[in-house]
């Protein structure tokens, strides 16, 4: 869900009646409309302005107007709802609080339940997400936003087959709805049904629906060996972008770059990747990140680790696959999850939410030591047990459940504190290859470090510095899975992985590409193929174009 509220949706919200609260644990009764909370003309005018500012992406100003409304009318549901949408993608905890208050103020409004459900989905809390979105559908069965939100939830929950009929129903209701038009091919692609996904994406392009995003998704469904007509079409779209077309430029440039890379026209491809990243306008605060890494290294000492050695839960259920994005984390998860006793849960944000709750991920926090000091043996045990229950929900009978959120490399200290017997697999790849692979993808705002080659190399150095620290204070705990070693000798390295998990070998792990289930990362095409070696030393294709990256990596660059 975008943090922009569709005008038609907003109009509906403003006329939606309120009814008495009902429990989500029971079937919702028929709505009994009654007068909603009093809303002044002044409030309505401010919220109309807030919606216009939101559409113009002037988000701080929109937030200020909503807060002015709440100062007069503390539980104004629409003001709370808009504030929730503003928080999505920036501050999920704040979004959750605002959406929950909106639901409390107007519990029979399906849009508010969709918002709350999507906020839960952002933090990988799938059960409450599905419950609230389903409740919205109980109230309004033909609500396209709710059908698509539920489809996205099932897709993220590794149940892509349940998502498909929801998107199909949404398309029957509104054949031009962007969420349905792009949601259905995304679900198909996650299940490996690339040809079918491509059909729907071409239809979206023909109907002029979310054209840049559709092209970017379309070119990911296959590898091109000869120039396709799509390339000329993408380049024409780029030429036609007006002054207000910059929003679509990153996706279109990356789409063109992907096709040109496939065609081995590397200089042209890199030119588009650079333009795409520059068009995104993202800046990363490297100095603040460096200070955060300094603080982690300073706080997590061998003495601290020894003093907390008895904390947490001794369960062997959790497996954390960590590393830089594009380092082989998806491939590693797929190999492990092909074992009958292992469940691959995808990228979960639960651990980061725990860390956020105790102040570990707030880079402006100058008192990390105090945050760690709040972790008592009882609190560690409680947090670990809650996390285990959360994992068990996904696969009650699995012996190991894999969370492959790459950036959990930042939280290895917390992992070892909560789960002293958890397995941690660190995926490492040739530094230049890894960085180039990040740079050429149209990453979201969560990866702003990858938008500039020099910044990307310096960020990689901080990642490497932190990983060296974790290895020093947790000797022998972290299994390093070298991407190039896995590519060179798949079976031998796969056997080492499964042995590290403490499980007997199963030949199914060699045919990871036949595994059922959803794959929702940029690697979804690659992991449906047998292992190939063309991605090793791929950076040499771009050597003359990436000197700033190589220089910033310094001694980590294996040239």
From TrEMBL:
<dbReference type="InterPro" id="IPR011990">
    <property type="entry name" value="TPR-like_helical_dom_sf"/>
</dbReference>
<dbReference type="InterPro" id="IPR019734">
    <property type="entry name" value="TPR_rpt"/>
</dbReference>
<protein>
    <submittedName>
        <fullName>TPR repeat-containing protein</fullName>
    </submittedName>
</protein>
<feature type="repeat" description="TPR">
    <location>
        <begin position="144"/>
        <end position="177"/>
    </location>
</feature>
<keyword id="KW-0808">Transferase</keyword>
<dbReference type="Pfam" id="PF14559">
    <property type="entry name" value="TPR_19"/>
</dbReference>
<dbReference type="InterPro" id="IPR027417">
    <property type="entry name" value="P-loop_NTPase"/>
</dbReference>
<feature type="compositionally biased region" description="Low complexity">
    <location>
        <begin position="25"/>
        <end position="38"/>
    </location>
</feature>
<dbReference type="GO" id="GO:0008476">
    <property type="term" value="F:protein-tyrosine sulfotransferase activity"/>
</dbReference>
<dbReference type="Pfam" id="PF13469">
    <property type="entry name" value="Sulfotransfer_3"/>
</dbReference>
<keyword id="KW-0802">TPR repeat</keyword>
<feature type="repeat" description="TPR">
    <location>
        <begin position="110"/>
        <end position="143"/>
    </location>
</feature>
<feature type="region of interest" description="Disordered">
    <location>
        <begin position="1"/>
        <end position="41"/>
    </location>
</feature>
<dbReference type="InterPro" id="IPR026634">
    <property type="entry name" value="TPST-like"/>
</dbReference>
<dbReference type="Pfam" id="PF13432">
    <property type="entry name" value="TPR_16"/>
</dbReference>
